[in-house]
Design goal:
The protein is built from 20 helices and four strands. It is mostly helical.
């Protein structure tokens, strides 16, 4: 029996029950990832799946909008199980992104047709997700094994549905899934930290923080796989617009009307790494404090998570402060473990900035250069097809580089004073 568990059962037994992940729909094996996503819906919903499986081809042929407009109006009453709801939400989400952005930023739509908008809205209400493609859809519920008995690795995983961009889309979403997988040991260690803090088990907390550090380090290594599996020109020039939303987007300044739901347009942010619950959990555990603007955006992104995962983040934030516990105990091993954990999170955020530079900042500069040259040169380059309105923004709608640097600096500020100065060169 571990020291932490003994402590939970002894010194803390007249306190609250030990903190656990079981109440939050977090899988022991897969973390936030949906285990064994369904691949097909009941036959009644075949019209949805037929279109969803063809979104890239229909967009390329400029025919997706006409197919969706002819689609029958289907009720969601025959969807019962959680996995059915998730697959339906994913399928309708991919169809929605394709419908809105079929013609790029030059011919956006003002209204999503009733046949898509009404069931998508009703599904979203049942799941507690917004009616737009989210990280919970495109990554956490959008995978299957090629060989059911094979490993969970890039070579044996593929997507259920896709957006335009070919194999680069698979690479982007599956690498992101691998980052989620790498985080599982860290997720499982969060209760050990919380329960250890509650009963002053400095050794148990230090050990759990060490496991979290290793896991965050592995997440960064998995993120590096993007360079092998995704072409920056294809991501920026083709894929990125289909991940974009209709909030804080100059292409659609008034948002989108969901026909049959309400007459006023609604605004929703596009996909963002900030929609993953992982870093929110780490921030709350380690005590990373965000300033008003970055904090507001991150809090808003929690509305794009499943309610149980959002609740987990809230409940971690309400626990006794780990950072204060470390400072008050002045235990050398504990301080070192805390500092290392924050440093690994800081390194991950620094590397995310490097990724964004390669996949967004550099292609954006190239696209601007091409637009100042001849149309013939422009036609030769994939990056030149990217929407102008997104050059300085993330798909979630933020000024992406300033946001990432602010959050990175806030992470650095979480380091305890004795060593925080040593890391200030990472600007």
């Amino acid at each position: 029996m571990s020291c932490s568990l003994r402590c939970s059962m002894a010194a803390c037994k007249d306190s609250t029950a030990p903190f656990s992940l079981h109440a939050y729909h977090v899988s022991e094996e897969l973390g936030f990832i949906l285990p064994e996503p369904m691949q097909e819906l009941p036959p009644y919903y075949q019209p949805w799946m037929d279109i969803a499986h063809q979104v890239p081809e229909l967009v390329l042929a400029h025919e997706l909008r006409s197919h969706i407009e002819k689609m029958p109006q289907l009720s969601i009453q025959f969807l019962q199980r959680h996995r059915e709801l998730r697959l339906a939400h994913l399928a309708l989400g991919v169809m929605t992104m394709g419908y809105v952005w079929q013609e790029g930023e030059i011919d956006t739509v003002k209204m999503l047709p009733r046949t898509l908008a009404v069931p998508y809205w009703e599904l979203s209400r049942r799941l507690g997700l917004p009616p737009i493609l989210t990280h919970a859809d495109a990554v956490l519920a959008n995978w299957r094994k090629k060989d059911p008995k094979g490993p969970l690795d890039i070579g044996n995983l593929e997507l259920l549905v896709s957006i335009p961009g070919g194999e680069n889309v698979r690479g982007f979403f599956i690498v992101t899934l691998m980052v989620e997988l790498a985080a599982i040991p860290a997720l499982k260690s969060i209760p050990k930290v919380i329960n250890g803090v509650r009963c002053a088990d400095t050794k148990g907390v230090a050990q759990a923080l060490g496991d979290i550090s290793q896991s965050i380090d592995k997440m960064a290594k998995c993120l590096r796989l993007l360079h092998e599996h995704v072409d920056p020109a294809v991501f920026y020039g083709i894929m990125r617009i289909f991940l974009s939303g209709w909030k804080d987007n100059p292409c659609m300044p008034k948002g989108l009307v969901y026909e049959g739901v309400q007459t006023e347009p609604m605004e929703y942010s596009g996909g963002s790494a900030a929609q993953s619950s992982l870093l929110h959990c780490f921030d709350e555990l380690l005590g990373v404090k965000h300033e008003a603007k970055s904090g507001a955006f991150l809090t808003c992104m929690r509305n794009y998570m499943l309610p149980a995962h959002k609740q987990l983040i809230r409940d971690i934030s309400s626990q006794p402060s780990l950072r204060t516990f470390v400072q008050q105990n002045a235990d050398e091993q504990l301080i070192e473990a805390f500092q290392e954990c924050v440093a690994k999170l800081l390194a991950l955020r620094n590397y995310h900035i490097t990724v964004v530079t390669r996949f967004i900042t550099i292609p954006a500069a190239k696209a601007r250069q091409l637009r100042n040259q001849s149309k013939e040169a422009e036609a030769l380059e994939t990056v030149s097809m990217a929407p102008v309105a997104l050059e300085e923004r993330g798909t979630g709608g933020t000024g992406i580089m300033s946001f990432l640097k602010t959050v990175r600096n806030e992470t650095r500020d979480t380091l305890l004073p004795a060593t925080s100065k040593a890391t200030t060169h990472n600007s």
